[in-house]
TrEMBL record:
Membrane topology according to the record: Multi-pass membrane protein
Start-end of each Solcar repeat: 41-135, 154-246, 259-352
Entry's transmembrane regions: 156-179, 265-285
Gene Ontology CC, one term: mitochondrial inner membrane
Name listed for the protein in its UniProt record: Mitochondrial oxaloacetate carrier protein
Organism: Coemansia thaxteri
Principal location: mitochondrion
InterPro entries, A to Z: MCP_dom_sf, MCP_transmembrane, Mito_Carrier_Antiporter
Keywords from the named record: Membrane, Mitochondrion, Mitochondrion inner membrane, Repeat, Transmembrane, Transmembrane helix, Transport
Family to which this protein belongs: Belongs to the mitochondrial carrier (TC 2.A.29) family.
UniProt keyword Repeat present: yes
Subcellular location: Mitochondrion inner membrane
Length: 357
């Protein structure tokens, strides 16, 4: 009797163990239970990590964003002539002029809406990049997952697609904040370029845009921003992914493993250059689409450009092809350190989550 009870008890315990460990007993129908998603790879955690990292990065790089914006708007739709007055001659001179005449507040214009834009853009694209990439790998490559023992074979095309999709989604969500940020950064009482909107704050800007153009006004230029973020994000996330994997595979013996700050730094340096090359033309168009004055018709549209393609055409036909690379150095000085800081920050936040959460 006792033996029977003990046997029954032992059998029950074996089934429980089999369920817990995911090992099917002979003749049983016990299925392997799915492993729980680690907290550091949870979408909410990665979204928060991306938001915090990008906000930390933009605090240091926003001054170069102000310089870039003004260089891109300078001489808008005007043919270059020897006598053309240009208040900003190059990156360093523009930085000095803005700092001297407008102070630190001038160099940090648009930082408030810049934080909100970073949360919407980078929180979304960094938070959802891995889940979207996982879906694409399962759908098109039959790869169901990865582990430290069996890492997933990288496929650049799928990484590019995942990065582009997430970037476009983030740009759409953050478009109103990018709109206000651009207009605040172009405003100057000393050396004005482009149309001057003269917002006193982020809230004042959003209120005036809503009053004059409603929802359409708030989302003017969103299509250009989605092209900009889609191009940049597809290159940035895929290139960073590939560079980090390459460095950790080939330089692990020198201490550059997957979790090394040095690995993240090197991968980010390479990534920043390629992103800037691809993104700058879209960035010029996006800046001009956002900053143009409202249409006299009062329907929330712009007075200079109806859509990004027209902006491309008018910019190149009037100012030449290389006008699409206006502010390139300022863009790289902003984007390079931003990429480095953002990825180093986000990797360290993830490492903290992996260790303590």
């Amino acid at each position: 009797m006792n033996d029977s009870a003990n046997g029954s008890s032992g059998s029950s315990a074996g089934v429980v163990d089999a369920v817990v460990q995911g090992i099917a007993m002979p003749g049983s129908v016990v299925a392997k239970m799915p492993e729980p998603v680690p907290a550091h790879r949870n979408i909410m955690f990665t979204w928060l990590a991306g938001s915090m990292a990008s906000c930390g990065a933009v605090t240091f790089t926003n001054p170069f964003e102000v310089v870039k914006t003004r260089l891109q708007l300078q001489g808008e739709l005007a043919k270059s002539t020897p006598n053309m007055v240009k208040p900003y001659h190059n990156v360093m001179q523009a930085f000095w002029v803005i700092g001297k005449n407008e102070g630190l507040r001038g160099l940090q214009k648009g930082l408030g809406p810049g934080y909100m834009y970073q949360i919407m853009l980078n929180g979304t694209r960094l938070g959802f990049y891995e889940p979207v990439k996982g879906v694409l790998y399962r759908a098109f490559a039959g790869q169901t997952g990865e582990s430290q023992q069996q890492p997933r074979r990288p496929i650049i095309a799928l990484n590019v697609a995942a990065g582009g999709m997430c970037g476009m989604a983030g740009a759409a969500l953050g478009s109103p904040f990018f709109l206000v940020k651009t207009r605040m950064q172009s405003a100057s009482n000393f050396a004005a370029v482009g149309f001057q909107h003269n917002y006193t704050s982020s809230v004042d800007g959003l209120r005036k845009i809503w009053r004059d153009g409603g929802v359409r006004g708030l989302y003017r230029g969103m299509d250009a921003a989605m092209m900009r973020a889609g191009a940049g994000s597809s290159v940035q996330l895929a290139t960073y992914d590939h560079c980090k994997s390459y460095i950790s595979r080939n330089l692990a013996h020198r201490g550059f493993n997957d979790n090394s700050v040095g690995t993240h730094f090197l991968a980010s340096m390479v990534t920043g250059f390629f992103v800037c090359m691809v993104m700058n033309p879209f960035d010029v168009v996006s800046t001009r689409m956002y900053n143009q004055k409202p249409s006299a018709a009062g329907h929330g549209g712009g007075a200079l450009y109806k859509n990004p393609l027209q902006c491309f055409y008018k910019t190149v036909s009037t100012e030449g092809f290389f006008s699409l690379y206006k502010g390139f150095l300022a863009h790289y000085l902003r984007l390079g350190p931003h990429t480095i800081l953002m990825f180093v920050f986000v990797e360290q936040i993830k490492a903290f989550g992996k260790k303590y959460i």
